[in-house]
Amino acid sequence: MENIKDYRIDFAALDWESPMPGVRQKVIAHNGKKLRLVEYTREMHPHWCMKGHVGYIVEGRFEIEFRDGVRIFEQGNGVFIPDGEEHQHKARALTAVVRVVFVEETGVPQHHEA
């Protein structure tokens, strides 16, 4: 729990990871939960995703395409997309940068991992 002190997460002390072009993130996991600060840019290639997401848009604006249409999400909006094929979606940044905080389950209670 070196990056969790006094119940606060020091995101400034975490390194950025880049899982794919146009996406970078800072991740902290503890006790079966994961908190991710994710930054998307226009360089991210849209791709269909079936994983659910719960989060909050901190900065920027992006569109998410679902089977039944496109929805716009922007700073101050929450996101709650369930898992599954019927909720598959793909996102595209509409601003130079979109920052989102996601809360996720890791599946197994565990100690800190970064």
Q: Briefly, what is this?
A:
With 114 residues, the protein is mostly beta strands. It has strands at residues 4-5, 8-9, 17-20, 23-30, 33-41, 53-59, 61-66, 69-74, 78-81, 89-93, 97-105. A hairpin with a 2-residue loop joins strand 7 (61-66) and strand 8.
Kindly list the characteristics that best describe this protein.
single chain; about 110 residues; mainly beta; Jelly Rolls; six-stranded antiparallel beta sheet; three-stranded antiparallel beta sheet; about 0% helix; about 55% strand; disordered C terminus
Task: Classify the oligomer.
Answer: single chain
Strand order of the largest sheet: 3-4-5-11-6-9
Largest sheet: 6 strands, antiparallel
CATH topology: Jelly Rolls
Q: Structural class given helices, strands, pairing?
A: mainly beta
Work out the helicity level. Answer: under 10%
The first-level CATH class name? Mainly Beta
**Alpha-carbon distance between the two ends:** 10 Å
Query: Per DSSP, what share of the residues sits in E-state strands of 2 or more residues?
Result: over 45%
Number of structurally distinct domains: 1
Q: What is the tally of helical segments?
A: 0
Query: What is the CATH homology-level superfamily?
Result: Jelly Rolls
Report the count of strand segments.
11
pLDDT < 50 stretches: 110-114
Order of helices and strands: EEEEEEEEEEE
Known CATH architecture: Sandwich
